[in-house]
Each structure stands twice: as C-alpha cells, then as structure tokens.
Write a structure and sequence with these properties.
By secondary structure, the protein is α/β, with parallel strands linked by helices. Helices cover about 40% and strands about 20% of the residues. The protein has a 5-stranded parallel sheet with strand order 4-3-5-6-7, sandwiched between helices. The termini are far apart.
Length: about 650
Amino acid sequence: MSESGLDTFPKLLLDRAERNAERTAIREKDYGIWQSWSWREVADEVQALACGLAARGFARGDKLAIIGDNRPRLYWGMAAAQCLGGIPVPAYQDAAAEEMQYVLEHAGVGFVLAEDQEQVDKILEVEDRCPLLKEVIYDDARGMRNYDHTHLLDLASLQRQGREYDRANPDFFTGQVARGSGTDAAIILYTSGTTGIPKGVVLTHDNVLITARNAAQAEGLHEDEEVMAYLPMAWVGDHVFSYAQSYVVGFCVCCPESGATVMQDMREIGPTYFFAPPRIFENLLTTVMIRMEDAASLKRWLFDHFMKLARRVGPDILDGKPVSVADRLTYHMGNILIYGPLKNTMGMSRIRLAYTAGEAIGPDIFYFYRSLGINIKQLYGQTEAAVFVTIHPDGEVRPETVGKPAPGVEIRIEDNGEVLYRSPGVFQAYYKDEEATRNAKTGDGWVHTGDAGFFDDQGHLKIIDRANDVGRLNDGSLFAPKYIENKLKFFPHIKEAVAFGHGRDYCTAFINIDLEAVGNWAERRHLPYASYQELAARPEVYELVQQSVAQVNQDLAHDPKLTASQVRRFLILHKELDADDGELTRTRKVRRRHIAEKYALLVDALYAGKNHCYVETQVTFEDGRTGLVAGDLKIEDMTVRAPMAKAS
C-alpha cells in the first residue's frame, strides 16, 4: 500500500503487519516477565477483537470507552474500534465513578473495554445512569467469577467469538478497514477540566497521523526507538507518543508491570525516546539528591565535583559546541564514575530524545539532565492540536522558552497577548458543543490557546500564563499567577503552589510541601513527625519554605513587569492538594478558582493581616470514604525587595 493511502490507523497497522511482520511492536511486563508481540501478531489480535465487537453489535460510529493502565490489549481495543469505523474514548483510570459517568454519558458510549475488576466496579456503579451502555468487556478476569455476566464479557471470549465471526465472514474485516478515511473521527479525548466541565476533543485520523508523522520526521525518529508507555491513555501525549508515532514510525512500545514499577522497568528496557511532565523529572531529581545526601562523604564529594563540571560543559558537549580537550577528558571520566551510573539508575542510559511539557520546568532541573548528556527539550502543545505546537530545535534548547513552531504549524500573537495557532492537527470539534467549538476555533482554522505569550528576538515562543488568569494588582501592576507558582515549584521541597493577587493589593500564596523530600530533610535533622499535617506545621519547615519564597522574590525583583508580584504572605496547607478532592485535575493541574472558593477563609486571612487561621477541610480517601482534616495554620510575612535592574 502506498504511503499516501495509509490515512488511518487500521491501514497503517495492516501495512506494518506486512512490511515489518516480525519486528517487535509492543511489550508488556507481567509477573516479572517481559512478553512481546510482533506487528503481525498485533494485527491478528486486533482483527479478532474487531470481529468480536462486530459480532456483539458494535458498528460504524459507535463509541468504545477504554479504561485502565497502559496495557497492550487496551491499545488493541482502540485500534479494533477504529477498524470498524468506531471511535475510542479513553477515560482516566484513576477517575471516580461519577467522573466516568460524565464521559460515558456525554460521549454516548455503548461498549466499554476495562482493564480489571476495579474499573468494572466503577462502571457497574453508574451503569443505570448511562442508558446507551450495552456491554462491558474486561481484560483481567481475576475477581470477576461471581459477577452477573449478563452484560459482562471477558476479552479472551470476545476474541474467540471474533475469530469465529471472521471465519464465517472472511472479507468483512478488510472491507471495514478499506472504508475508513483520514477525515473520519479517530478518537475523542476529554480535556482535564481545569476551569470547568471537561470537553470532548474530536480528532480525525488526519489530525493525529499527519502531526505525528511531521514531528517524527523532524526529530529523526526511526524503527529502533523504544518508548515506555506509562502516562494515562486518556491523555493526548500518550496517544501521540505511545500509539500514533509507534504506528507511523514502527517503533516498539513497552508497557510497565504497574505504576509502582515504572522506574525499575525503565532500567530494564532502557527507552530511547521518552516523555514526562516536569513533575516526573523533578521527582527523579529529588530522589537522586536525597540518596546523595545519605551517601558516604567520598561519594558526595565526587558527585559534587563532577556535577559542577557537567553543569559547565555538559550542555555544550550535547549541542556539539566547542569544549576544550581537558574538559572533554574530565567529562568522560565523570561519565564513567558518576553520569553513566546515575543515568542507568534513572533508566535513561539510552535516551536519545526526551520531551517535557504541560508546565514550566525549572532551569536548574532542565540543565541538570542536559548536563548528563540527556537530550531533553521542551514542547508546547494542546489536546486540540494533537500535541505539537512548538518544539525546541536542536542546538537551540533554552529552558525559558518552549521553542519554535513545530513542522506545519503557524502561530500568531493577538493584541491582547493571546497565542493562536493553525496546523494539520487542529481538532475537528468539541463533541456535542458547537458553541465551545466556535469560541475556540475561527472559521479559517485558527485556535485560541487561552495562553498569553510572545516571541523573543530569536523566534522562540515564551508562555507567560493563561490569558484569562493574567490579572492586575490594585496598583495596576501585572499579576501572572502560574508564572509565580512555577517559580515556587522549582524548589524540590515545594510540590504545589497556588498564588493569589488579582484585584488585591499584593500577592500571597498557598504552599504544598513535598512529603518525601521534606520528610527526608526532617529525618536527617532528627525532627519528629507523624503525618503530612504535622510536618507541614513545623517551624523549621516554615523556615525552609521561607528561604525559597525569598529567592523567588529576589528573582521577581529583577523583572520590571512582575516585581510588584513578589509574595508578601504565605501559608503551608494542612493537606496535600488532591484530584479526588477537586483541587487538581487528573493531569495534576491546579484548579485555582475552585481552590480560592474552597479555601476562601484562608485567602481572606492572608489579606486581613492575621498571623494564623483555623480551618476544617473535607477530604476523600482512596476507598471513597470522606473525613475532616483540621488545623490552625500559621501565616508567614515576607520581606519585599526593591526593584533591581537585570544583570547584563
């Protein structure tokens, strides 16, 4: 089949099964053993699934919800639905039953492919509120024996039915695949709902495949790449990196045994192509620094000595810039003693290309990885763009920007600073929401990102904040909360931050400490604590956070546009912000407006001059039970620095 005819995922799959039949397409670790499937075997599994779905009444235009961790059979279910002209609808596996219900009901889902008993239980809890739901298919049969199987079916049985259906209708499957077109809807991905109800983003095969192909060609991806699929299947990043680009390029996707074993599994596989949001890179670095603080004095000295050199010359060596012979030799020695073992510990020994996106990443963290020789870049994207809007070009990798327009992407900046883009990846529509579609996408295909930014003098895009979140203090000074929050989160002991200031006289902040990092710090100083709440309330922890806030204020004092946004007062929250409590989205983005309403008492206290405030908060436990967490929170005052000219 010609390249021009490969305009859908099913057509690409059959082409791979013919041209790359015995190459490994996907792996999964199960019970400690890696199992592999070739492209030919994947095509056979998908065909059996598709025919099984057809035998159960699944037809063109129907929706198949996909719910669970990254599993080969769930990816195959996605392809099987597309083979029949259906539309897969992945849902976040950690979503509560009510959140699942919204997606199932709004998308009009008739069939569900669930990973295991946990996910099936959520569906059964809300099935009476989903009138179009016909059947639930499950992959892992453990614990399912005594369930009412009237509308339940295990995946293995479905595939057996599919093979029988295929034998009885030998031309059915290929005929269905041939009917597909690049303009058909390929998937519905629901946004995280940062500012409201999640929207279903409809992406066509053309949207996803053309964008994935353009980016892969620009970055030189090839069939020998290996990717670790560990991020939620409902997130557009996983869909593009672990599914679309795998089909386009033909590389292997590896599914870890569980979320808890990702790092161990990465060390075993050694991926060459990797994506992680900043929090993953931050958590890895925090773990490294904790281990080094507990190491012997000689090891700490070697680490500090060679990392100082790496920070100075490592990024230049990675970018192919001139570095003295002496420094190269010393760096090579550091690679043997420190950098190589460190990369191996993190499972990054073979990484050729790594991306980070979603939030800003701290310059120190960014350069730490590049100094080790890990080619990490920032990209900027959206679900509505099939990910790619900008990427760092090779040799122009800078942490303060998100790079230049990706291949095939046009960008313009409105008078109010909002970033707009147009590309082959621009989404078809928001499902069942014509008004939202019109508000987001112009008639000639430009998409409103909702982000404020500008191009610097080297053509790189800089994102300041969400356009709607950029506000003003009462004196008229610019207030960019996300920018401030990201600067606070650059410190390893600060996990989350929420800044307030719009329509106020000054800026204040809520802080969440990182329990692992601060807990280790406290243990080395023999500071007792029994819970997050106790640790967060300790005066020593307040002093630690105060030093970080002071550093952020010093940085802001150098910025004439944001110097007035220095943090005047802060408090450390008595609980961790949690998606189950509605404070974060499922992709761990802060829901600032919801937090401001929920903790209005604390916000008022920050601006009323109080030095403490008692608060009671309802929390949701993992088993669905609720309880109260209370605390008398200390409010800390900060010194505001006078504006300073930027150093040249």
